[in-house]
Protein: Alkylation response protein AidB-like acyl-CoA dehydrogenase
Amino acid sequence: MDTEDHKALREAVAALGNRHGRPHDTAQLWSEAGKLGYLGVNLPEEHGGGGGGISELSIVLEELGAAGCPLLMLIVSPAICGTVIARFGTDAQKQHWLPALADGSRLMAFGITEPDAGSNSHRITTTARKDGNDWILTGRKVFISGVDLADATLIVGRTEDARTGRLKPCLFIVPRDAPGFTRRPIDMELAAAEKQFELTLDDVRLPADALVGDEDAGLLQLFAGLNPERIMTAAFAIGMGRYALAKAVEYARDRQVWNTPIGAHQAIAHPLAQAHIDLELARLMMQKAAALYDAGDDMGAGEAANMAKYAAGEACVKAVDQAVHTLGGNGLTREFGLASLITASRVARIAPVSREMILNYVSHQTLGLPKSY
Ligand SMILES: Cc1cc2nc3c(=O)[nH]c(=O)nc-3n(C[C@H](O)[C@H](O)[C@H](O)COP(=O)(O)OP(=O)(O)OC[C@H]3O[C@@H](n4cnc5c(N)ncnc54)[C@H](O)[C@@H]3O)c2cc1C
Structure:
């Protein structure tokens, strides 16, 4: 449940979001939100942040989404990258990145997905090898958001364990213009300012301090960033679902083709009521996940963050679908602006971890059922 501080934050961010609305200038909104301190609410105060947690950052994203102007890069820059650097970075990395991520003057993208690994991140092959004090990174990534806008991308690679020969995950900060680091935009059917890229790392030479955190604790560090990512994707989905639902409700109150507004027909009203209930339930789960994460319970947060992402993704897809349907033909016009949300809402079902992979997680981890793969 929201505290008084949370309610105040919600109202203030909603006011900013409503000043921008849809369509909006993403760069302008990013910069304003940074100046107002919203981008770094989760980052430590001593490094220019607000000293809050993912509970607060998820409120920012949800409210901007509900106003029709979600900032996708909030999921990546302060939530994943900011969290990982704040928790595991060196003092120099913290000083260089955190104040700038918090005020929005620098942005960081995050790259884990690979063309041949997809949902199976154990299969990633981007490899880092030592050359003197430097690291040399080689590999490919796909669907990485905002690489053109970001000053650097936090790349998940692997290093070879000298004792076992096994590859273990490690995180590297790769500057946008590092030689050998190239990007190709992917032609997505998404109406969003943030583009997705295919990345090639061709013997990218990085200094020793490009490595974030401990070489031997990569997996733990990675999960510290992935739970916030799931919670923030839930916030993204809930915000979008609320936006679509509000548009549909407004329309259903006014539109009349018989002798009452269409919203009086239960065939229109009930699915909208269900969409509202589903979004509220998803938000409760998201708040639980955020509270566990902010309290330092990484394990407990993992299960709750997965469930919240699942519930929010499903609630968002259904809310958008019903909203478009409520507007009849107008649901598909550019003027009413809901049709493009049909594709956008599907992102929350696929990324950062698909609906099926969450069902697998709950089947195996929570219910103890055997694995098929
Ligand atoms: C808009 C957008 C932005 C993104 N941004 C980023 C980003 O910034 N950084 C980043 O690293 N990645 C990003 N991604 C990638 C995203 O995380 C992946 O698309 C996602 O993890 C799924 O991987 P995949 O697309 O390879 O699908 P696949 O793994 O090929 O899966 C395809 C289908 O098969 C199903 N499936 C796979 N394995 C199983 C199984 N064992 N059991 C049941 N079903 C299964 C999946 O659920 C899915 O429906 C983004 C994706 C999108 C669409």
User: Anything to note?
Assistant: The radius of gyration is 21 Å. The chain has ten helices and eight strands. The CA atoms of residues 34 and 104 lie 5 Å apart.
